[in-house]
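Hi support team,

I'm filing this because I wasn't sure whether my run with histidyl-adenosine monophosphate finished correctly. The job status page said complete, but I'd like someone to confirm that the output block is well-formed before I use it downstream. Pasting the exact inputs I used:
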Amino acid sequence: MRDLFGAELRWFQHIEETARRCFERHGYREIRTPILEELEVFKRSVGDSSDIVKKEMYDFTDKGGRQVVMRPENTAGVVRAAIQHKLLNSNDPVLFYYIGQQFRYERMQTGRYRQFWQIGAESFGVASPESDAESLVMLFDFLRELGLEKLTLSLNSVGTPESRPAFQEAFRAFFQEREASFCADCHRRIEENPLRVLDCKVPTCQAALEGHPRISDFLDAASLQHHERLKDLLTELGVPFVEDPRLVRGLDYYTKTAFEVLSGDIGAQSAILGGGRYDLLVKHLGGPDVPAFGWAIGLDRLAMVLQQVRGAAPQAAPALLIPLGERAATAALKLARELWSKGLDVQLETRGGALKKAMASANRMGIQTVLILGDGELDGGTVTVKRMATGEQESWALGEVAARLEAHTEL
Ligand code: HAM
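And here is everything the job wrote out:
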């Protein structure tokens, strides 16, 4: 579990601000659910046989004897909350987004942490492929607004529980013909949930899968139609995608659409986001029969990619106001207060002491504009303004500081 600060945290903040703006524009509203949920919430949604539930949960018994889990993801909690508060009982679409910490007891590596952050969006109440497209367009416009253009969507359809047995039968037969080539975990997976064999990261298993039966060849008519229409819409909207017949996702609740976006910029090919349709989960967790679609981005991974592609996160550096002497210190507090009340970014030097020391700090902090207020300036009703990049110096009338600083910041 990591501490976040400095340049990395600035990216987190910038991403979060952009996310809120983008999602609210589409009519999504924020939801915040607790970090602790009952164990059953995840067992019944993410799935008993998933790696998350089997190996990665921070679960414990609390002082009241309840079995609780530090949430490994947020979809199950959002569904639990929406059911509990009867938010899905009308026929209206319900659109939520969230930003929050998740916990998985995973092996640490670059981009994989035990406490990590997700930004997610979940849309409830609409089963159409247009709903998938709306959510994906929001996602890609958000990523583009952050300055990421070259990401490609890996897309698949995992069908429905009705369409899966025929695929599973064909897949089991395929597996049995070459079972010696698969790892021990895959031998367990083929019994518990054959789809997961497709997701195995062991290279020999991936090689043994060559020519495997594809879920897409076993889809029911409705899933197939949904998938084809979504691909047409994405093409029409200019959202690039590749079809990946092995993409099955590590969570059990998906039906029809499943997708991920990978980035080569974070070492081992890692997904920066994933999601899909989950039309059966709300009912399965005890709610009404409401279809849903959603995704979650790994904020830690997204920040890492952005730092590599774009360098430092955009941030307006505040001006630094340096008073010299006690009389100026009082005047500077008053001036700074006036500037803050007008929404201007100003940091106030309150240590007193020599100008040289304050200027050296300004340099280290990356301050671009310094306002100096000494006795001379006070008597003349001015401040001295120094631009750190050029060393340029000028004098502003005290009454004009706010307006000139505003104009200066806009440049
Ligand atoms: P997920 O694929 O398990 O899906 O996680 C989504 C994203 O969270 C991943 O693509 C990754 O970027 C990030 N992530 C996962 N584990 C870690 C980790 N240990 N360290 C850093 N980042 C990580 C879900 O969680 C689903 N709830 C997504 C969803 C929402 N499906 C429908 N709605």
